[in-house]
Specification:
Blueprint: H1 2-12, E1 16-24, E2 34-37, E3 43-45, E4 51-56, E5 60-67, E6 74-80, E7 85-86, E8 89-91, E9 101-104, E10 107-110
Parallel strand pairs: 1-7, 1-8
Antiparallel strand pairs: 1-4, 2-3, 2-5, 5-6, 9-10
């Protein structure tokens, strides 16, 4: 009876692996980007090659999000089951222009 309960518990709390690569629109990796399941604590960070990998206990329809400074946030709906999920992400640069800067005794402000 104990072995059956243990098997059921392991299936209840089984984890699904989510992995892929983050690249910009020129195919260059985006190291340090954060990838996670929206509204959860599950996620990871892309390595120097733009590769990320993490495990989650979340199931069903979820939103995968990727963020990094200088890039637009990426969101994609995924359905999490028991099989590993591969999501390759192409992030678009966010271009912001500085309108002007001014300084005042140790403080620099830009708009």
């Amino acid at each position: 009876m104990g072995a059956i309960g243990l098997m059921m518990a392991s299936q209840l709390y089984s984890q699904t692996v989510i992995h892929g690569k983050l690249k910009d629109n020129k195919g260059r990796p985006i190291p340090g980007a954060s990838v996670s399941i929206k509204d959860s604590y599950d996620g990871g960070v892309a390595d120097s090659l733009g590769t990320y990998k993490f495990s989650t206990t979340e199931k069903g329809d979820q939103i995968l999000i990727a963020t990094n400074i200088g890039y637009r946030s990426f969101e994609q709906k995924i359905t999490i089951g028991s099989q590993p999920i591969v999501v390759d992400i192409m992030a678009k640069r966010r271009i912001e222009r500085v309108k002007g800067c001014y300084g005042h005794i140790g403080i620099i402000c830009c708009r």
